[in-house]
Design brief:
By secondary structure, this protein is an alpha/beta fold. It has ten helices and ten strands. The protein has a single domain (about 5-260), classed as 2-enoyl-CoA Hydratase, Chain A, domain 1. It starts with 15 loop residues before the first strand and ends in a 10-residue tail after the last helix. This is Enoyl-CoA hydratase/isomerase family protein.
């Protein structure tokens, strides 16, 4: 299987995930502000490491994930990393994303996504893997990959988004590349609440602190029960589709077009 790393690119890839503990709350901040917190390989590694740490830390009761600044939670995965991708790299990448989201889903503690601005592509997937989601009125969600890169998601992520948003809405969001606004996300149950910009993070922390004061085993049992009910371990084969999409001329055209700041010329091959 192909393995991808930032060494495949001539430019250094920046970004990190910051860790801070506030009482019983672990705060993870996705930080790549020059690229709207787009996720780099290092950031995925950092996030995995932090999740492994808090999973074993009995002093942590709740995990809150947010983006650095107030413009974005995470605007996808850093596109510069895709320049040399092959079909096998695409399969490895989607499997890596599945591994990270599974850690979020299986974390034995409640998780909260605090969404300022954009949660796009990989950012959408990370928010969907959290237990609760709160946003400001400027929060925007979507996977506009049919307009930007011409890639696809893993079948597990299609399944998860469908369970949260419904099949028709997932099709519409991907087909049209439109973004889901905060009010609509709240109306369909994807967001748990919308807080004012000026008090947003304080309000999210208040929710987290309230949860942290509840019976830990009740929270754990509820999360385990719901996880088992939505078990996706027996998903249909899909790597053949991922391999074809990421190995296509269209995907490479989408990446180059994005970097060159022009519209891609789709050819369907």
């Amino acid at each position: 299987m192909s393995t991808y790393s930032s060494s495949q690119n001539s430019e250094p890839i920046v970004g990190t995930v910051l860790f801070e503990q506030r009482g019983q709350i672990a705060l993870l901040t996705l930080s790549n502000p020059s690229a709207l917190n787009a996720m780099t390989w290092q950031m995925y590694e950092d996030l995995t490491t932090h999740l492994d740490t808090v999973s074993k830390d009995d002093t942590v009761r709740v995990v809150v994930i947010r983006g650095d600044g107030d413009k974005a939670f995470a605007a996808g995965t850093d596109i510069k990393q895709f320049v040399t991708f092959s079909g096998e790299d695409g399969v490895a990448y989607e499997e890596r994303i599945d591994t990270v989201t599974k850690k979020l889903l299986d974390l034995p503690k409640p998780t909260i996504a605090a969404v300022h601005g954009y949660a796009i592509g990989g950012g959408l997937i990370l928010t969907a893997a959290c237990d609760l989601r709160y946003g400001t009125s400027r929060a925007r969600f979507g996977a506009p990959i049919a307009r930007t890169l011409g890639n696809c998601l893993s079948i597990r992520n299609y399944s998860r988004l469908t369970s949260l948003l419904g099949e028709t809405r997932v099709k519409e969001l991907v087909y049209t590349a439109r973004l889901l606004g905060a009010d609509e996300a709240l109306a369909v149950g994807f967001l748990n609440g919308i807080f004012a910009d000026d008090t947003f993070f304080t309000d999210v922390l208040e929710v987290a602190q309230g949860i942290a004061s509840r019976a830990p085993l009740t929270l754990w049992a509820t999360k385990v029960a719901l996880s088992r009910l939505r078990d996706t371990s027996q998903m249909p084969e899909f790597n053949d589709v991922v391999r074809r999409v990421y190995g296509s001329e269209d995907f490479h055209e989408g990446v180059v077009a994005h970097i060159e700041k022009r519209s891609p010329n789709w050819r369907g091959r």
